[in-house]
Amino acid sequence: MTSSSRMPGRIARLRMKTLPRPFLIGSSLIVLLLLVAVSADYLAPYPYDEFHFLQRMAAPSGNHLLGTDEFGRDVLSRLIFGTRISLMMGIGSTLLCLGFGVPIGLYSGFKGRKIDEFIMRIMDIIISFPSLIIGLLIMVVTSPGTIKTVFVVGMIFTPHVVRVTRAVSLSIVKKDFIEAARARSESTRFMIFEEILPNIWGPIIVEGSLRVTYAILLAGSMSFLGLGTQPPQADWGLMVADGRMYVGEAPWIVISPGMMMCIAVIAFNLFGDGLRDLLDVRMRKLG
Q1: What pLDDT digit, counting tens, does each position of 74-92 carry?
Q2: Total tally of structural domains belonging to the chain
């Protein structure tokens, strides 16, 4: 093997070494979770809603690696399908709050003055209320469900995204290229989406990756309280709620989904922290 043929492998290993360790660990865990979610139909040994009353609360064994719950349902199968629903709620609500929050934050930061004050005071009022309380009030008024939980959690976190986007856009608004665009009489839409947005993608992506962790926890809390995902669907928060009465007899019912929720939160936190470090290093090099 020639030295030239070894070069691509060396370059790849060198690039891997330059990536922050939290980013590598977090992204690897996220990819693994996504693969589990996508392949749930093939990975789960049993249907997630299949009852076996003769095997209820059976301890982990060869037939049921993580045991069974109070209805005899396989905990591992429910955990695998719960990964799909929990990630869907976490990522879906994050995409929703980014879709609403980023344009509002950009517009607020660009316009400034009275419009900025008006928008930010509304955001401050919403943020002043605890997230879980707002979610519970909305879900009590309407019927609970997975899709509604995604929408509610996304709306709750929209003000947070607005504040972050507005803060980073304020540092761009007074740059020379924005003043040049004003001098050319460019439209507001062009200056916001063509000039400002491409320069603040980094902080927005980091905020989005970290916001997923809060969304997973809040959606799980709502499911735990019976106002999120409804039985017989499998969701980590719902699994903890269903098994809390049997912790003394069958602790594996609660421990497994609790551990999965911890792994998901740690994965997205590590990914967000590592991505922030990576972007900071690149910005310092460009500076």
Answers
A1: 999 999 999 999 999 999 9
A2: 1
